[in-house]
Amino acid sequence: MNGRRRLKPDPPSGATVVVVVVEAISTLTTPSSLAFMGCYMRKMWPGLRVISLNNGYGDHVNFFLYVNQTDPDGSLSWFQNQLVEAEKAGDKVHVVAHIPGGSGEALEGWAINYYKVINRFEDTITAQFFGHTHSEEFNMFYENPDDASSRPTGVTWSAPSLTTYSEYFPAYRVYTIEGQYAGSQYRVIDWAEYYVNITEANANPTKDPEWKTLYASVLAEYEMDDASPAEWDKFITKMITDDKLFGRYRKNFYRQTDKGECDWSCRRGFLCSARKNHHFTPICDDLPLDPPSGGRRVSTLSSSSITRKSKRRKITPNLEAVPTKEEKPQIWYFFIAQNVERGCKEIQIFSRELVKSSPSTR
Questions:
Q1: ∠257-263-268 over CA atoms, to 5°?
Q2: What is the pLDDT of residues 95-133, one digit of tens each?
Q3: Is the Cβ–Cβ distance between 115 and 252 less than 8 Å?
Q4: DSSP SS3 for 298
Q5: For the whole model, what pTM was predicted?
Q6: What CA–CA distance (Å, rounded) separates 339 from 355?
Q7: What is the per-residue pLDDT across 239-249, written as a single tens digit (0 to 9) for each?
Q8: 182: exposed, middle or buried (Cβ count in 10 Å: 0-12, 13-18, 19+)
Q9: Is residue 237 within 8 Å of residue 304, measured between CB atoms?
């Protein structure tokens, strides 16, 4: 960290460390890193490619989109070509981008085309890392983009920001990802988050701000079996009736608790937003307009009773390819979302080549 105070936590011994930083374009000094319109691909390890997609071109204030929403600068075509090459090689892909398709600042034409690309390459893309919102959010993809009862095909994760703008405590996220071994798909295993309570820090100006653990495991925090799209979709369904689970998600969204009351209309907005990766409204039509009666907690329900009635294709995970923390190597991604100037939304990946996680090497 250039001699500055080291952020916690300490990665497990033997883990590979990758630092992923969202920065303004003015910090980039090597034109070769911007291979195509601010986008590039890097082969990280055998079987894994990272594609940095400059989807600032999908911003609603990009007025060229109103002339051509399909692919104004050719970056989506470049993105598809990169995915085709990865698919042919049998490689998995992590996508790093900025504006989630469900954000109010993503124009629908660009967002729905990105959605279609994700569905086409769902077997190749195993993780999507986003930012922009400054909050902790996730957004789903479904086989039918307008029907949340169809099969979940993907999910974007928006990491929290270090900036407080406009109502958040600073935070960062550390992903644990399947490492290099036969059969690895480089899927996200889990993640942890750490934050600073700015109110406490301002009340003690002579002391260094203290980084605290927001939660050590997102799977434990949200009572999930794994980080698959199906589990995140199930998590949304659980939050319809589970007040405590939704309260936990809302607290983590801001990294603070003093946000006032959230009535059913407020909660429905959170749930609908999580389902969206584009802007058509039918995706939320089945969410009740009024609070569910009975006040039941999901913890009292069977798994079958919280699954929406649908004709979803059942997916059997390849459990043999899922590593245990004790037996398989892991990769840690440190995601730090900095305050990005408007209009400069490119993302660069800084990696340390197979850095072992002893204190002397960080």
A1: 100
A2: 998 777 766 667 777 888 899 999 999 999 999 998 767
A3: no
A4: helix
A5: 0.75
A6: 27
A7: 999 999 999 99
A8: exposed
A9: no
